[in-house]
Specification:
- Helix content is 42%, strand content 27%.
- It is α+β, with helices and mostly antiparallel strands.
- The chain has one domain: Alpha-Beta Plaits.
- Helix 2 runs antiparallel to helix 4.
- The longest helix has 16 residues.
- The chain is globular.
- The N and C termini lie far apart (36 Å).
């Protein structure tokens, strides 16, 4: 009985598990946030044409960190599930639909890390 209660108690956490990626990046020489913003406009046009529309993306700039010189921005992206992440990767990378635009991103950035985390909502905002 204790096992059932334990499983039922944690079931909502597993149902709402979602993959989230973080790219920690600096700009390559000669590039800046304006270049990234212009790239995002072009990137959105490419992504809007994909069958998979489950990816949400965010550009975050650090306001405070132990070393502000390490990162110019963090690109964060999330999917609704691991299945949609897989289909999105397939379409964007394996089928080559995002290859050209992703190449532009790699040209203007030096990303020191790419991290995938499992995200589980543990509290929903009330307002």
């Amino acid at each position: 009985m204790k096992k059932i209660i334990f499983i039922i108690g944690f079931l909502p956490l597993t149902l709402f598990s979602a993959p989230v990626e973080f790219w920690s990046c600096k700009f390559a020489d000669g590039y800046n946030m304006e270049d990234l913003n212009n790239w995002v406009i072009k990137w959105n046009k490419v992504v809007d044409e994909l069958d998979d529309q489950s990816y949400s993306a965010y550009v975050m700039t650090p306001s405070f960190t132990s070393n502000l010189g390490n990162v110019d921005f963090v690109w964060a992206g999330s999917w609704s599930s691991y299945a949609t992440m897989g289909s999105g990767f397939q379409e964007y990378f394996a089928e080559g639909k995002g290859a050209e635009i992703h190449g532009e991103f790699e040209k203007m950035t030096n990303c020191s890390s790419h991290t995938l985390v499992d995200s589980r909502q543990v509290r929903e905002a009330s307002n």
